[in-house]
Specification:
Layout: H1 2-10, H2 14-22, H3 25-44, H4 50-54, E1 57-62, E2 65-70, H5 71-96, H6 103-130, H7 135-138, H8 149-159, H9 165-189, H10 196-214, H11 220-237, H12 242-251, H13 259-274, H14 278-290, H15 294-318, H16 325-332, H17 335-361, H18 373-382, H19 388-397, H20 401-435, E3 453-455, E4 462-468, H21 475-489, E5 493-499, H22 505-519, H23 523-531, H24 539-548, H25 553-562, H26 566-578, E6 586-589, E7 592-593, H27 600-609
Parallel strand pairs: 4-5
Antiparallel strand pairs: 1-2, 3-5, 4-6, 6-7
Helix pairs in contact: 2-15, 3-8, 3-15, 5-9, 5-12, 5-15, 6-9, 6-17, 8-9, 10-11, 10-12, 11-12, 13-14, 16-20, 17-18, 17-20, 18-20, 19-20, 20-27, 22-23, 22-25, 23-24
C-alpha cells in the first residue's frame, strides 16, 4: 500500500503534464501548425464566419475611458506583446548568462540579422519592380524581413539531436534580433501618426522599470504594474504596441544565482521542515522566489501561455485566407506573391549566410562552439520561415483585400517551402557531421594515467579527451554528453579531462581547486559538483563544491592561497594554446581534434569509426597497491556517494 501511495504521489498531475508540454518547442510548433490549419479550414468552409468573428468589436471601460478594438487587434496588439516579451527575456538571459555573454559571439547574429532584414527587402523590391506591381504592393516590403521564431524553434526541436545544441541559441538570437529590427521597421515605416505625449508616458514607465532594477526589486508584480501603462502609452502613440513587450523583456533583471540567497532559501526550507507553520511556509516561498531572477520567473510564467494559447490564437486570427481556384490562380501569376516567396526563401538564406561568413572572415566575431559554415547555411534556410511578423505587416501595409490575400498566400507558400528546404538542409548537415572524421590536429601530449584525470581504463579501444573549463556555460552539458557516451560505450571508452582556461578569473580558481581535489583523490566528485553549477561559479561556490565533494576545506584553501597547483593547470592550458584551441570545450577523439556537432550520436559515430587507429599513444601507469577503485558507472551519482578518484595522490 505504501508503495502504491508513493507511486500515486509521484504521478504527474494533468497540470504538470500540460506545463511540460508547454516547455516543448516541438509541441508548441505542433499546436501552432494545428491552429493555422484550423484557420484555413474555417476561412474556406461555405458560409464562413471567419472574418466576421475576428472583426467583432470588444471594449474595456474604466469610468469614462474606453479602449475598443476588434478581436483580431486585441490578439495582434495585446496578446502578441506577451509573446515578444518572452522572446526578449530568453535573449536577455543568453546575453547575460548564456552563450552570448561573450560579445564577440553576439556580433555575428546581429550582423546576420541586419543582412537578413536588408537583402530580402531588396529582393522583394527587385521582383515587384520587374513585375510592375502597384505602389501599395511595393510598400509591403516589410513582409519578408522577419523570421517566425516559434516555427523555427519547433522545427529544431523536431530534429532534436541531429544538430548541435548551440545552433538553437544562434538561431534564437538571430530570429529575435531579426524580430526587433522588424518591429523597428514597423514603428518607422508603418506608423502613420506618431503622438509624442503617450510615447513619453511609455518612456517614463521604462525608466521606472530601470529604477526598480537598480533598487534590486525582486517582486514580479511591481514590474507587471508598470507594464500596463507602458503598453497603453505605446499603443496610443501610434507605434506598434508589441514594441512595449520587447522593451520590457530586455529591461527586466537577470542575474546568476547568488550563493547567499540560495543559502537563505535552503535555511528557510529547513526551518519550515522542522517547524511547519503557515508563516514558515510563507518565508520559505519568499526566499525561494527571491533566489530566482525576475527574468527566469517571467519565462516560467509566460511560456505555457505563449506556447499553448497566445501564438496559436494569433495564427487562428490571422492565417485564414480563402484558397479558391480563383485566388490560387491569381496568386500564382501575382508578382507580389512571388516577391514574398523570393524574399523569404532566397533573400534570407543569402543575406544571413553571406553576412555571417563575411563577419567571421573579417574578424568581427566568432561562431559559437560546435558551429561551422554548414550550420550557418542551415540557419539561413531556417530563417526563411516567416509567419508572425509577416502577417502583422500584411495587415498594416495592404488595404486592398485582393493584394492582402495574395500576400498571405505568398507567406504560407514561402513558409512551407522554407520549412521543407530547412529539413533537407538539416539532413545534409547531419550526414556531413556524421561522416566527418576528427580534424587533422593531433593531441600533442599523450594521455598518462599517472598525470591525467581519467575515467575508464587507459588503453581502452576508444579515447575521448576534453579541454574544458568549469566556468564555461557548457560545462554542465559537456558532463551530460560524456556521461551518456560512457553509459553507451562502457569499458570501451576512456575519458580524460584537461584544463582550458577562459578570461574569467574564476576559471583558473576552479581549475586549481579541481587539482587540489585531485591531491585528495577526489577529482571526479569535485568535477561533478562544479559542472553542476556551470556558469555561476565564484570563490564561495567553489568552496561549497569542495564541501559537497567531501574535501578537506582547509587543505583546499591553503592550496589556492599558495598557488600550489597553478603550474599543473598552466601546463594543460599552454598545451591547448599551442594546439590553437581557442575556447572550451574542445574534444579529441582517438587522438585527433573533433570537428563535429556537440551531440552524443555524432560523437559516438566518430569514436567508433576511428577506434583502433593511432591515437595519442596513451601511457598506462602501474597503479599503487592501495590505489582506489576506478570510477564506476553510472557516473552522475551524488558527490557524497561517488567512488573516490582513481588517481594516485599527488
Amino acid at each position: 500500500m505504501r508503495g502504491t501511495a508513493r507511486a500515486e504521489e509521484t504521478r504527474p498531475s494533468a497540470l504538470g503534464r500540460l506545463v511540460r508540454l508547454a516547455d516543448s518547442d516541438a509541441a508548441a510548433a505542433g499546436v501552432l501548425l494545428a491552429a493555422t490549419l484550423v484557420a484555413l479550414v474555417w476561412a474556406n468552409v461555405p458560409g464562413s464566419t471567419y472574418e466576421a468573428t475576428w472583426h467583432t468589436p470588444f471594449a474595456v471601460r474604466l469610468g469614462d475611458a474606453v479602449l475598443e478594438m476588434d478581436l483580431r487587434h486585441w490578439v495582434n496588439d495585446a496578446l502578441m506583446a506577451v509573446f515578444f516579451c518572452l522572446i526578449s527575456l530568453e535573449v536577455k538571459r543568453d546575453l547575460v548568462l548564456g552563450e552570448f555573454r561573450d560579445t564577440r559571439r553576439i556580433r555575428i547574429p546581429v550582423v546576420a540579422a541586419l543582412a537578413g532584414l536588408a537583402v530580402p527587402a531588396l529582393v522583394f523590391l527587385a521582383v515587384t519592380g520587374l513585375s510592375d506591381q502597384p505602389g501599395e504592393a511595393r510598400a509591403a516590403w516589410g513582409v519578408v524581413i522577419s523570421t517566425d521564431t516559434a516555427f523555427v524553434l519547433g522545427l529544431l526541436a523536431v530534429v532534436g539531436r541531429s544538430v548541435p545544441v548551440n545552433l538553437r541559441a544562434f538561431v534564437l538570437a538571430l530570429s529575435v534580433v531579426d524580430d526587433v529590427g522588424a518591429l523597428a521597421v514597423i514603428a518607422v515605416a508603418y506608423t502613420d501618426d506618431l503622438t509624442l505625449l503617450p510615447l513619453a508616458v511609455a518612456v517614463v514607465g521604462l525608466v521606472a522599470v530601470l529604477a526598480l532594477r537598480r533598487l534590486r526589486v525582486w517582486r514580479g508584480w511591481a514590474y507587471l504594474l508598470l507594464a500596463v501603462p507602458i503598453w497603453l502609452g505605446v499603443l496610443a502613440s501610434g507605434v506598434h504596441p508589441t514594441v512595449a513587450g520587447v522593451a520590457i523583456g530586455l529591461l527586466l533583471p537577470v542575474n546568476p544565482f547568488s550563493a547567499e540567497e540560495v543559502d537563505a532559501a535552503e535555511a528557510a526550507a529547513r526551518a519550515y521542515g522542522r517547524t511547519p507553520t503557515s508563516s514558515g511556509a510563507h518565508r520559505a516561498v519568499l526566499s525561494l522566489t527571491r533566489s530566482v531572477s525576475v527574468n527566469e520567473r517571467g519565462q516560467r510564467l509566460f511560456r505555457p501561455w505563449v506556447n499553448l494559447a497566445v501564438v496559436p490564437v494569433f495564427a487562428l486570427a490571422n492565417a485564414g485566407v480563402v484558397l479558391s481556384g480563383e485566388t490560387l490562380a491569381a496568386a500564382a501569376t501575382s508578382g507580389l506573391t512571388w516577391a514574398i516567396v523570393a524574399g523569404l526563401v532566397v533573400g534570407k538564406v543569402v543575406g544571413v549566410t553571406s553576412a555571417s561568413l563575411a563577419a567571421v572572415r573579417l574578424g568581427l566575431g566568432r561562431l559559437p562552439s560546435g558551429l561551422f559554415p554548414r550550420h550557418v547555411i542551415a540557419a539561413g534556410v531556417l530563417s526563411g520561415i516567416g509567419f508572425t511578423i509577416s502577417l502583422f505587416i500584411i495587415d498594416l501595409a495592404l488595404d486592398d483585400p485582393v493584394l492582402a490575400a495574395e500576400a498571405r498566400i505568398g507567406v504560407l507558400a514561402a513558409s512551407v517551402v522554407a520549412a521543407l528546404l530547412a529539413l533537407a538542409a538539416v539532413a545534409v548537415v547531419r550526414a556531413v557531421d556524421r561522416s566527418r572524421l576528427p580534424g587533422r590536429q593531433r593531441l600533442a601530449r599523450p594521455v598518462r594515467a599517472d598525470r591525467d584525470h581519467v575515467r575508464g581504463r587507459v588503453g581502452a579501444p576508444m579515447e575521448l579527451v576534453v579541454y574544458a573549463s568549469f566556468v564555461f556555460t557548457n560545462a554542465g552539458r559537456t558532463a551530460e554528453v560524456v556521461d551518456e557516451l560512457r553509459q553507451v560505450l562502457g569499458e570501451d571508452l576512456v575519458f580524460v579531462y584537461r584544463h582550458l582556461l577562459t578570461d574569467d578569473p574564476a576559471s583558473a580558481r576552479a581549475a586549481e581547486a579541481a587539482e587540489a581535489a585531485h591531491a585528495q583523490s577526489r577529482f571526479w566528485p569535485m568535477h561533478d559538483a562544479m559542472a553542476a553549477r556551470a556558469g555561476r561559479l565564484d570563490d564561495r561556490t567553489i568552496r561549497r563544491c569542495a564541501v559537497d565533494a567531501g574535501l578537506n576545506l582547509a587543505r583546499v584553501d591553503d592550496a589556492l592561497a599558495s598557488g600550489a597547483h597553478a603550474d599543473r593547470v598552466r601546463e594543460d592550458d599552454d598545451d591547448a594554446r599551442a594546439m590553437a584551441l581557442d575556447e572550451p570545450p574542445r574534444f579529441f577523439v582517438n587522438g585527433q581534434l573533433y570537428d563535429g556537432p556537440f551531440d552524443v550520436g555524432a560523437m559516438r559515430t566518430a569514436l567508433e569509426q576511428t577506434a583502433g587507429r593511432s591515437r595519442s599513444r596513451a601511457v598506462p601507469a602501474a597503479a599503487p597497491a592501495d590505489a582506489p577503485a576506478e570510477d564506476a558507472l553510472p557516473v552522475r551519482a551524488p558527490a557524497a556517494r561517488e567512488p573516490v578518484d582513481p588517481e594516485p595522490v599527488a
